């Protein structure tokens, strides 16, 4: 696109058309102290490339990063090992520069990668179909809630308080103009969703129940028993997975009664990157195919009998009647989905299981080490994956800040930010990258506080 600045003649014609004498008069509604006027911006002079590189390097080094500290932070974004093969493959020009497959007949490589992604997500979740990815786990959950409303035309959603608080905020934003009512379900003393409360709140307007497992406290929810009573009332069960690596050892949600499974795939080969871009996944039953948001790629054969891939379903308003469009999420972040696909294919079923087990063992080691420190305790007595809640003898935010300043340890998330009743609780995470030495060091620092 060419950039053609306005000429002085253009400016004078525009000012005359709107009835002002000059640019100063045009902006006179802006308070004088806020106007730049003729003063320079105060920007430094230009630099040579080497000087600029060194300057940016110094700027970068001022940031805290996951490599230079002991990191026990999870809460929806996890530090995992990513094989070098992933960046090597997704950096190939044909992948790094490709856009979403608007012209599927000329994008066979992209379509095949998406098809493989869908297949792997279906296998992990135990569902019949999966779409070609979403922006992230939070927006995938919001789309699932809206989809449930489309399916059964009911407008009440029971959502557990143990669902990631920021996921719940995104759902609230998506549904505030859809006449969908969100009702929070409390958690029990063991950190699990209060299932009895769900049963008591079910009524004829209940559209879906939303659970997260492992939940925001790291606790593994037990929800298989809900299936029958929900199905009898035509209520859908939506299960969200914020830590996708847990699917390496946990029974797939689809085999435990879920109707829709959504989640965040960042753990599969995507770096933390200050929160994105990540990749959401969305899987459900075949009977809901026409209500599924986004797009799906299918496998077929061409007229010469060769294996090929096609954009089978695309529900965006440009392709179908606007009133029948089911979602405006169409940019499938193909490169992120490809990274997840390469990660899963590289690790394989056994490799994924081994990494998941390593996470459980590391987190259990840390949990058992910390529970022995005087004044500290594990907040919830329940099975966990790679996160757990530590009850501290004083406000968790104060503990976290002290560890960061004195020992360069980022010790998780103070839960009072989201749960005022848990003021002294700290959410910690241990992955395969946390060494025993740094876990022992965290314990020693806590012993001295």
List keywords for this structure.
single chain, 449 residues, alpha/beta, seven-stranded mixed β-sheet, four-stranded antiparallel β-sheet, globular
Describe the protein.
The chain has 449 residues and is α/β, with parallel strands linked by helices. It is 36% helix and 15% strand. Helix 4 packs antiparallel against helix 11 (334-371), helix 6 packs parallel to helix 11 and helix 7 (137-152) crosses helix 8 (165-175). The protein has helices spanning 8-18, 23-26, 49-61, 84-90, 93-96, 108-125, 137-152, 165-175, 195-201, 226-232, 334-371, 396-407, 436-447, and strands at 70-71, 129-130, 156-160, 181-185, 206-212, 236-241, 260-264, 280-284, 295-301, 307-314, 377-378, 387-391, 409-410, 413-414, 425-429. The mean pLDDT is 91. The longest helix has 38 residues, at 334-371. Strand 9 and strand 10 (307-314) form a beta hairpin.
SSE map:
Elements: H1 8-18, H2 23-26, H3 49-61, E1 70-71, H4 84-90, H5 93-96, H6 108-125, E2 129-130, H7 137-152, E3 156-160, H8 165-175, E4 181-185, H9 195-201, E5 206-212, H10 226-232, E6 236-241, E7 260-264, E8 280-284, E9 295-301, E10 307-314, H11 334-371, E11 377-378, E12 387-391, H12 396-407, E13 409-410, E14 413-414, E15 425-429, H13 436-447
Parallel strand pairs: 1-13, 3-4, 3-5, 5-6, 6-7
Antiparallel strand pairs: 2-8, 7-8, 9-10, 11-12, 12-15, 14-15
Helix pairs in contact: 4-11, 6-11, 7-8, 11-13
């Amino acid at each position: 696109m060419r950039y053609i600045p306005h000429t002085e003649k253009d400016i004078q014609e525009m000012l005359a058309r709107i009835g002002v004498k000059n640019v100063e008069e045009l902006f006179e509604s802006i308070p004088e102290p806020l106007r730049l006027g003729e003063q320079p911006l105060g920007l430094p002079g230009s630099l040579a490339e080497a000087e600029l590189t060194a300057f940016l390097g110094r700027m970068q080094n001022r940031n805290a990063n996951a490599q230079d500290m002991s990191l026990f932070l999870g809460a929806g974004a996890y530090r995992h090992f990513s094989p070098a093969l992933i960046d090597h493959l997704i950096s190939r020009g044909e992948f790094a520069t490709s856009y979403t497959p608007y012209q599927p007949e000329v994008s066979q490589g992209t379509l095949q990668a998406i098809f493989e992604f869908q297949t792997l997500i279906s296998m992990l979740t135990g569902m019949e179909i999966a779409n070609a990815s979403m922006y992230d786990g939070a927006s995938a959950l919001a789309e699932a809630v809206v989809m449930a409303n489309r399916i059964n035309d009911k407008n009440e959603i029971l959502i557990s308080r143990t669902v990631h608080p920021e996921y719940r905020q995104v759902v609230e934003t998506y549904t505030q103009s859809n006449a969908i009512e969100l009702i929070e379900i409390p958690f029990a003393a063991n950190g699990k969703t209060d299932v009895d409360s769900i049963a008591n709140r079910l009524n004829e307007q209940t559209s879906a129940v939303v659970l997260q497992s492992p939940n925001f406290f790291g606790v593994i929810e037990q929800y298989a028993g809900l299936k029958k009573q929900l199905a009898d009332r035509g209520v859908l069960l939506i299960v969200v997975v914020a830590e996708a690596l847990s699917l390496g050892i946990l029974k797939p949600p689809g085999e435990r009664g879920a109707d829709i499974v959504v989640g965040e795939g960042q753990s599969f080969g995507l770096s933390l990157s200050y929160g994105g871009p990540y990749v959401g996944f969305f899987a459900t039953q075949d009977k809901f195919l026409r209500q599924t948001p986004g797009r799906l790629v299918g496998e077929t054969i061409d007229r010469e009998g060769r294996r090929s891939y096609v954009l089978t379903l695309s529900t965006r308003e440009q392709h179908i009647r606007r009133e029948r469009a089911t979602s405006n999420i169409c940019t499938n972040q193909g490169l992120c989905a490809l990274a997840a696909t390469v990660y899963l294919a590289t690790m394989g079923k056994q490799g994924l299981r081994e990494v998941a087990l390593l996470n459980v063992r590391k987190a259990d080691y840390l949990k058992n080490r910390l529970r022995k420190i005087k004044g500290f305790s594990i907040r919830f007595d329940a099975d966990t994956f790679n996160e757990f809640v530590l009850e501290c003898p004083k406000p968790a935010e104060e503990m976290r800040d002290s560890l960061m300043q004195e020992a360069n340890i980022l010790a998780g998330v103070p839960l009072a930010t989201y749960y005022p009743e848990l003021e002294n609780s700290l959410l910690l995470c241990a992955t395969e990258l946390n060494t025993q030495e740094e876990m022992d060091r965290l314990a020693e620092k806590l012993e001295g506080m």
